[in-house]
């Protein structure tokens, strides 16, 4: 192969190929596509992880609101009694209320005497997520 004055390479035979007309080889194209595919997989995983995290945050936020609602309701309808109760809260959420006495005081004397009890009230909201159980627990102290 010998270059001539016009910038082409002369070969033995009827073909002539310009030196500036080279392209990518098939191997280079396959490697570039493999790298692009790996990058897209990484971006997809990052995006789906963000969606899952947003969904989990939404469940936690809803559970906190449900627990606050249950905590606000305690003692308004009926007196708080020590013990534990639970139930279904709808939407896949389950609630549990636990009240236990911390201290008691006797106020007054004679027939007008009354006992005031300080209770620790704990509200737990749980739900199924990602093959396991998650929960939110709020605690407060109330007089009864």
Structure, described:
The chain is α+β, with helices and mostly antiparallel strands. It has one domain. It contains 1 helix and 7 strands. The strands form 2 sheets. It has a 4-stranded antiparallel β-sheet. Strands 1-2-3 form a 3-stranded antiparallel β-sheet, with no helix packed on it. The longest helix has 48 residues. The termini are far apart. The model has no long low-confidence stretch (mean pLDDT 84).
Which descriptors would you attach to this protein?
144 residues; rod-shaped; alpha+beta; 41% strand; 33% helix; 3-stranded antiparallel beta sheet; 4-stranded antiparallel beta sheet
Q: What average pLDDT do the residues reach?
A: 84
DSSP, total strands: 7
The largest β sheet comes out as: 4 strands, antiparallel
Between the first and last Cα atoms, what is the distance in angstroms? Answer: 103 Å
Specify the overall morphology.
rod-shaped
User: What portion of residues is helical?
Assistant: 25-40%
Q: What is the overall number of helices? A: 1
Please state roughly what percent of the residues sit in beta strands, choosing from under 5%, 5-15%, 15-25%, 25-35%, 35-45% or over 45%: 35-45%
Describe the structure in brief.
This protein is α+β, with helices and mostly antiparallel strands and 144 residues long. 33% of the residues lie in helices and 41% in strands. The strands form two sheets. Strands 4-5-6-7 form a four-stranded antiparallel β-sheet.
């Amino acid at each position: 192969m010998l270059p001539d004055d016009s910038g082409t390479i002369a070969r033995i035979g009827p073909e002539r190929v310009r030196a500036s007309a080279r392209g990518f080889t098939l191997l280079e194209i396959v490697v570039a596509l493999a790298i692009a595919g790996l990058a897209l997989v990484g971006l997809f995983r990052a995006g789906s992880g963000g969606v899952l995290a947003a969904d989990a945050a939404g469940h936690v936020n809803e559970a906190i609101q449900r627990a606050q609602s249950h905590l606000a309701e305690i003692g308004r309808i009926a007196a708080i009694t020590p013990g534990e109760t639970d139930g279904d809260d709808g939407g896949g959420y389950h609630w549990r209320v636990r009240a236990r006495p911390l201290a008691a005081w006797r106020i007054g004397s004679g027939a007008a005497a009354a006992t005031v009890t300080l209770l620790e009230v704990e509200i737990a909201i749980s739900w199924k997520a990602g093959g396991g159980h998650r929960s939110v627990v709020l605690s407060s102290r109330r007089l009864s």
